[in-house]
Each structure stands twice: as C-alpha cells, then as structure tokens.
Amino acid sequence: MNYSSAPKKMLNMCILDILKEHTDASHTLTQKEIADILQSQFEMTVDRKAIKRNLSELVNAGYPIDWEEIPRGGKDGESPVWTNFYLNREFEDSELRLLIDSLLFSKHIPYSQCKSLIEKLEGLSNKYFKSKVKHISNLPENLPGNKQLFLVIEILDEAISRGKQVSFLYDEFGTDKRKHHKLNADGSPRQYVVNPYQMVATNGRYYLIGNYNKYDDVSYYRLDRIAEIKLLDTPVKDKKLIAGMEHGLNLPAMMAEHLYMFGGPSVRAKFRAPAWLADQIIDWFGLGVEFSKEPVANEKSTSEEVTLVSVRVNENAFFFWVLQYGVYVEVLEPKAIRNKIKAAIIKMDQQYK
C-alpha cells in the first residue's frame, strides 16, 4: 500500500504494512527501525511510545505479530523493552514456492492469469521472498489456454455444491492450431449435459469427474476444453446409478486407476517388469500395487531381477502406459490387452519398415 504523507490515524495500518513488507521470523525490526521506515517511506515522524501503543492495538486486534521482550538494566519491576518485531506468516516461503512452481508447471492456466496469480502469491510474503523468485523464467505465451477457465471452475464449483447439472460445449484442437467445438453427425455443435461430481488436478491439467447424462458410466472432461458452460436447474444423477460409483466416489482409488483420465472400465492387470522399475510403477499406480517374485524361471528370464506386478487400473489407460514402457514390460493379463498390445506392435513394425 502507498500511505505517503499518511495522517496519524493511519499509523497502525502503516506499521502493519511495514511488518508485511520487511519482516518474518528471520528478519525483525526494532521500534527505532520502524520509526525510521515510517519517516523515509511514509513521511511520518513518530516517537517510540506511539509505535508501541499502535503495535499493542494491532496485537489486541488479533494480528499475528511476535516480538522479543528484553529486561531493562535499571530498577527492579521496570517493564521489559519490546523489540525485534515481525509478522507471523500464514504461508512459509517454501509453501509459497511450492504453489508458484505448481502454477509454472500447469498446462491449463493461461499465461496472463498464471502471471497474475504468481504476483498475488508473492504478495503474501515480504521483499526477501520476492528477491528469491526473481530468477524464475518467463512463462511461455504460446501454450494453449482457456481464458474462461476460472469462470468454468466457479460455475462447476457452484453446481457441485448445489447438486445441479451443467451443460457445455467441448473443444478440441485441429491442425490449424485452433479450438473447435465437437460436432454431432449433422454438423451442429454437440451439447453435453453432465452430472458434475468432483474437480481434480493431475498430470498438470484440471479435470471434471462426472457423468454424461445419456449414459451410466464415469466420464472425464478437461476444464480448459469446456466452453459456453451453463448451470442447469435439474438435479444431478445419484452416484449409486453410475458404474464405478455405486459405493460413492473413492477419489484416491479412482486417481490411481485412471492414469490418463480415460473413461471406461477398470481391470485387474498383471505384468512382468524388471525390479528396478518398481519406483516408477509406484509413482504411476500408488502403493496399492502388488509385487511378487517370479515363481519359476522361464525362457524369457534374463540375469536381470524380474518381478511380477498386479494392479487394478483403467483398461484404456493401461494400454497406453504399457506402450510407454513397452521395452521393459510384458503384459500377462488380461489376455485382451495382451493381444491388443501385440497388434499395436505389429502395426508399429509395419509403419517403421
């Protein structure tokens, strides 16, 4: 804030502003230092008694201000000296940095909005924190984004809270690098009527977990692809009627099973993988994954330690995950996915001949 030549009745707000900008647990100010900043920054000449009185008022008003009390060296019973004042922060610098990094790695927030959010987060700390984040690279402006993203989030949040359906158009990119609405067979924009249940962030993107009202299974929608969203008056479909949600929304299990947020059923998959891949397997599937040793040596075994892996996972997501790690992974079950992988390998081989 700018309180240049501020009246004395604004003294407590000026002091609070100084503590916000200049202090934390590692950077404190004495009453004299506060007086010097009041003079240089706000053109206010204030004695220490007035500073102490206003600091007391701020503390009594509930502001999280800490200080140190130092005993006087004079007569017994004299009140201690209040010094080394600082404002206790709601967020640690490390927490703010984590939030800023999350924004930087986000793939769905438009450049201008991301930059604005980072500036707001920087404002929650002091000048020392701001100096630490000066080296952050400029955000790329050529990433696709949805300028209506926060409006979409706001409407979805209200819909989920009130248990109401939403309608929207859904976009996809064409080779012209522009977004286009998905269309019906007759060429008209396809109107989605969706029962929204939860918003989640994964793989750097924001998704809506819901149900396309025409069907009875779970569907996923990227928030940055939603356009012309409207809140409807009709209530959402009961989760008990949605395949996979009969017992409610188990979000941790659902996120572990749906690696890439594909729709469709989940299956119990078994595959063979080198033991050193366990770390990445847990990263993808979570701690619910089961490992076991090879029961017997087989003709495909090598000197490399091999493990058998069992995990419950979305069928479509598992297919693409196996293609990603195909050099190291052999699918054993289900047979349908194993055969689908074999067909994909044959097709890729033909394309690269």
Q: Explain this structure to me?
A:
The protein has 353 residues and is of the alpha+beta class. It has four domains: 80 residues, Arc Repressor Mutant, subunit A; 40 residues, no CATH class; 101 residues, no CATH class; 87 residues, Alpha-Beta Plaits, CATH 3.30.70. 35% of the residues lie in helices and 24% in strands. The protein contains eleven helices and twelve strands. The strands form three sheets. Strands 3, 4, 5, 6, 7 and 8 form a six-stranded antiparallel sheet that branches. Helix 1 crosses helix 3 and helix 4 runs antiparallel to helix 5. The protein is elongated, with a radius of gyration of 29 Å. The N terminus is likely disordered.
Summary keywords:
single chain, 353 residues, alpha+beta, Arc Repressor Mutant, subunit A, 4 domains, 12 strands
Helical content stands at: 25-40%
Describe the sheet with the most strands. Answer: 6 strands, antiparallel
Report how far apart the termini are: 67 Å
Number of domains: 4
- Rg computed from alpha carbons, rounded to a whole number of angstroms: 29 Å
Q: How many helical elements?
A: 11
Spans of at least 5 consecutive residues with low confidence: 1-5
Structural category is: alpha+beta
User: What is the typical, i.e. mean, pLDDT?
Assistant: 83
Q: What series of H and E elements makes up the topology?
A: HHHEEHHHHEEEEEEHEHEEHEH
What's the shape? elongated
Name the beta content range. 15-25%
Number of strands: 12
Short description:
Helix content is 35%, strand content 24%. The chain is α+β, with helices and mostly antiparallel strands.
